[in-house]
Amino acid sequence: MDMYDNDLQQKIDHEIKMREGTARLLVASKHPAQVLEAAKNLLSSNTRIIAYMTELQRRKTAEVLGKQSSVEGNQLPCSAQLSVSDIRIPLMWRDADHFRNKGDYRRYAVFCLLKVGTEIYDTSMISDVDRSMTDITFEDVIHFDDVPHDFEMKLEVYCHKLHEEFSVASTPKKLRKKINDISGSVGRSVGKRLSGLNDADVIGNMVLGPKFELVAKGSLHLSDVDNSVRTYDLQLETNAEGQVHELPLFGHYCCRLAALPHCLVQPTVTGFLNLQEDDDLSKWKRYWCSLKNLQLSCWSSPDDVEVIQPLLSIPVTKSTQISDADPTTSQKSHSFLIKTVNINGIFCHTLAADTKEELNKWWDGFQQHLLDQALWKHACDEVMDLKSATRRKLPAFVRKSSLYEDTPLIEPENNGDSLVSDLGNDQLTQMLHTLMGEASQIRGGTSSQS
What we know:
The structure is a single chain. With 450 residues, this protein is an alpha+beta fold. 30% of the residues lie in helices and 28% in strands. It contains nine helices and 19 strands. A seven-stranded antiparallel β-sheet has the order 15-14-13-12-18-17-16. Helix 1 packs antiparallel against helix 2 and helix 1 (3-28) packs antiparallel against helix 9 (425-443). The longest helix is centred in the first third of the chain and has 34 residues, at 32-65. The protein starts with a helix and ends with a strand.
C-alpha cells in the first residue's frame, strides 16, 4: 500500500470514529438543534466513507489489473484550487402561501453537500426555511485543493421537514423499547449486540434521528468557472411515485465558482538564463528567471524576487511559440527563441541556458506552462480572487454557551439501564470538540462559514 492509500485509509478510519461519536451524540441529544446538526453530520460522514472506500477499491482494482500508468516528464496539466461561494437556491411558493399568508405553516431544514472526487464538504444548515423566504442563502465559502482540469463538482441539496418531536427518544424507556423492538426481528446474535449498543460498528451504522432526503442536485465543470455569480440548473429528485419533494424548489441555483490554476501562483520552473541584448546581438545579460502567471519574469538575482518588481517580463501566453534560436543571429549554445504575437505586435526574445540539462529543463517548463493554459482555458485569463476561508464556526446553538453542558442527558434510572449514562457532560462536550476540530485537518481541505 503506497502513501496515497495510507492517507485514504487514515481518512476512512477518522470518518468511522466521527460517525461513531456522532451517533452517540445523536442518542444523547434532546435539543432539536443538536439532533438536526448531529443527523446532518452523520449523513456527511457516511457519504465520505462511501467515497473513500470506492476510491480505495478503484485503486486496488487498477493495481491488480496493471492499469496504473506512470506519466513521464511534464505531460499532465497543473491542478487548481476551487472556491465555491454565494450559494443561493430560489424558492417558488404558491401565492396563497407566500403573499396571502395562507396554507399550512411548513418548515424545513436544508443543507448542501459539495463533492469533487473524494473531497466532500457540507454547508451550514438553514433550519427555519418557511413560506416567508424567497430563497435559501448559504454564507459558506468552500475550497477544494488540487482539482484537475476535467473536474466535476457535484452539488446535492438535502432537506428535512421539521416536526414538533426531534429527539431520538425522550426517555431511556422509549429508547430501550425502540431497540428491543428492532432486536426481536434481527436474530439473537445481532439483537444482543444491538440492544447493548456497546459495539461501535453497530452504533455507527444505525440510522438514527431525523432523515434528510436528497431533493435536488446539480453539477459544475470548468466551463462554469466565472469571476462573478452565475445561475445554473438544478435537477429535482423524485420519489418512488415520481413526485418531487414538497420543498418548492425553482429548478435553478446561483453560486460563484472561481478557479485558481497553480501555474498562475506557483513557478513552473526557475533558474538563470542569458538574454540576448536587442541593440547588440553579441552581448548577453544574465538574469534569474521565473516562469509563472503567463510570463517569464527576470531579476538580477534570486534575492530580488521578493523585494522588487522584475526588471523584465516576457509574455508566455497561448499565442507564444518556443523554438530553436536562429543560428545566424545567435552563436551561443543552448539558446532558444520566445515569440509572442498579440494586438501590440510581434515580440521576439532569444535566451540561452548554461547547460544542455538546463535547456531541457526550461524547454519542458515552457511546454508545461503552455499546456496548463490550453487545458485550463479561460480560468487562466485572469487571477481570480478566492474568497478567504476561515475556520468553520460552531453551530449557533452553542455560540454563547454549550448546550451539551446546559442540556441534561437522558434521565438517569436506578436500574442502570441507561444506554448513555456513562456519557457525562464533560465527555459529551469533548466529543463535540474532537469531531468538529479534527475534521478539516484530516480531510486535507478547507471548508468555511463566513
